[in-house]
Amino acid sequence: MKSTEEIIKRCEELYEDLNFTAAREWKDAKPGRKVVGYMPIYVPREIIHAGGMLPLGIVGGGDQLEVIHGDAYYQSYICRIPRSTIELGVGGNLDFVDGMLFPSICDVIRNLSGMWKLMFPDVYSRYFDLPQNFNDDIGGNYYISELQELRQGLEEHCGVDITDDALRRSIAVYNENRKLVREVYAYRTKQPWKAAAADVYLLIRAGLVLPVEEHSQMLQDWLAAVDAEDRPMKDNCRVIVTGLFCEQPPLNLIKSIELSGCYIVDDDLLLVSRWLLDDVSTEGHALGNLADAFLHHSESTSSKYEPVETEKGQYLVRAVEKYGAEGVIFASPSFCDPALLDRPMLQNVLNAANIPNIAFKYAENSGQMQPIREQAGTFADSIKLWSEA
Amino acid sequence: MSTVITTPKNRPDPRDAAKDDSMIKQKEMMARHFDKITDAPESGQKVCATFVPGNLNELIMCFDFANNLPEVNAIQNGLRKKSGQFVMEAEKLGHSEDVCTYVKSDIGMMAKGNLAPNGKPFPDPDVLLLSYTGCFTFLKWFELLREQYKCETIMLHTPYEGDGKITDNMRKYMVKQLKEEVIPKLERVSGVKFDIDRLRENLRRSAKAEDDLVYVLESAKKRPSPIDAYFGGIYYIGPIFGAYRGTEEAIEYYATLRKEIDARIAAGLGPVTPEGPMGKEKYRLVTEGPPNYTNFREFWKMFYDEGAVVVASSYSKVGGVYDYDGFRHDPDRPLETLAEYCLGVYTNRSLPQRVDMLVDYINEYEADGLLINSIKSCNSFSAGQLLMMREVEKRTGKPAAFVESDLVDPRYFSAANIKNRLESYFQMIDQKKAGASIKGAAA
Ligand code: SF4
Ligand code: SF4
Q1: Which of A102, A262, A382, B52 is the most buried (most CB within 10 A)?
Q2: CA-based angle B65:B71:B73, to the nearest 5?
């Protein structure tokens, strides 16, 4: 049996490899294989998979990539992820990618879809719209047609067939993966001292670049290994970290939060891996099932409209209860419209429910962790004092 | 240094700065707009708030609502130099310094008594029509207002033209939302039954005014251009982007304006500036991006002092594109036309489409180049503008320049920087023109 250390080491290598060697190797292993990249927040990877292609999650360049060209494309007041993504594109790191999907999350990624079309005309680039109307007959039908257009676009551009049967099979494969991701999260919620936040992050992040089957095996191996190991429990408080759904925090930031006395019991990192909350049906109309899952069984987040006023932010309150969290940390990328516009409303909801919370900003290349460590440390102390009082 | 020094000799007589009829009309219309809203508690009229891009004024009027457009209020506060304090107030209340200042100006204004330019308080809206068109911020802005007002909020999702075209699926989605959600909810809040013939009438009136607006905008193809399509354009688009589209008053306003422009053309005159008619037209520019409102006149002056006139601007298409591909509201397809209107607003178009438009404007209006005013607040406009600039330069061979400011946050207006940048830009145009004429002479 592999140890968690071995598994995480492999994840770390994948994380650090900005040349996406694993995905390149997958592509080179058989002639005619295609790779389709996607950005946050969510795309139905099943459709790519059903065409025999590899979905590749692109979440910027992190803190290891030197951005040389990217800054020439963006003003200083725009977040980091688009510029480092452009850097990856211009630098040739994505030269093996046949398609790029830009989901509707904000205007920066929306506009990046057009930039990609202008800069990489040979790549199939698509803005992937997600409905903000959650009625089956309205948003549902619209979304099904969107999925159908995506399917056709991929078929035409990549020269593949995406059949209904293949789609249903891919849905089953991703159901399995989502189930395992949920188990990993549940494990951490239960025994956070055994599942370090950075480890869990790396483990889920590996799913962005690996074939889903391989990733599911990796998750299974980790779940088996983690149980067999022992790690000391610390007197940390339990927090939810939110706002990290697009531009990634440096790994050090995740570590810093934990080092300063907070166990992360839930987060909104890499939401694509668990966007759909339940299994998607593998019977009947495959695209209809994906649409149903999106409309009625998907995550709540800042880029999604909340139609019911009294429900605004309640998902966080419920998460606090469900995961036994003692506080919430809002960590948002600088200049991030969805996270920062939403934050005051979410904070009001938490304050009304007497849930302690703090907020800070980061960038994917933030180097200085001291202020964050101090803030998170003070927060942890105040929570402990509060619960002792 | 090729800067034109404006001497008293070529400075027009300030007495010429007397207001045109259209200007007086518009001022009155603006005053009536605010009075109508602030008088609502007494008049019993209900109030709907919605956004300028995707403003469904024709539909809103079918339910007898007064239409309160928050961007118009933010602009007014910018022009009246009040927005700075409102933005800071919102930041004190916990809103991030990184987000759109229109939202913060609105929230700060609410916190400070919510007074309209006429000095009376804005009433709470009865309904927020969240026309989610071309800008992500809108989604959060009305969630924020809903938190405050607890009133009915209606989402109308306009899909983005990612592939540069309107698909049947998009149109159907929007029409369905209108039919099954927007209209029934507006009926419920207003207590007025929807009458499609009334909508058709409003749309018919819109199209008529739109014809005249396009005539005015396209008059800038003349030399000298009788209008400034950016600074002056802001005034011209006011009624049609705001609460007057679909009314007789808008028709009259645009007819009057058209006549005035015709007279200017006949007399060979350039645009009217705040200091009277502009001097000799020296540079013809196309602009991309919104203007700055806190130092609007100062900004404009940097152009007209140098003889620079804006002949076409993307900002004057943010509440509807009428010139570029000939869209008109169509009374024979009332709901489809509302959908297409929303789908086609400038900020809902893909980046390649926006580049095409700017390139075509430069060619058709025989402009000397492109000037981008990049707005810190606005990711919808700003993200990608540096690439747009390079593409436009490459495709037109004309020089482009990039300045940065903000809409209504005075902290981001650096007059010296902008002026310097503009001066070197005008020099660059001169050099380019000189180069072209040398080449021409050599050929
Ligand atoms: S970090 Fe925020 S603003 Fe930037 S691309 Fe992501 S969601 Fe958009
Ligand atoms: S200024 Fe830009 S970001 Fe702000 S509301 Fe207008 S379009 Fe949206």
Answers
A1: A102
A2: 75
